[in-house]
């Protein structure tokens, strides 16, 4: 299956902004994070097709996974 991964803010450092990944059917968001060398603690918001997702959510063909780190500001 093919999914699209969109990375935001500091997660883009040394990585592409948007990438396509070919995964085994039923792979989870945790497996995607592992392949991208992103620790779960680095993730504040995880969206699958624009909706809240969990670290153990199985993905489907053509899903769009958006990953955001914690952000600070004032």
TrEMBL record:
<dbReference type="InterPro" id="IPR003749">
    <property type="entry name" value="ThiS/MoaD-like"/>
</dbReference>
<protein>
    <submittedName>
        <fullName>Molybdopterin converting factor, small subunit</fullName>
    </submittedName>
</protein>
<dbReference type="InterPro" id="IPR012675">
    <property type="entry name" value="Beta-grasp_dom_sf"/>
</dbReference>
<dbReference type="Pfam" id="PF02597">
    <property type="entry name" value="ThiS"/>
</dbReference>
<dbReference type="InterPro" id="IPR016155">
    <property type="entry name" value="Mopterin_synth/thiamin_S_b"/>
</dbReference>
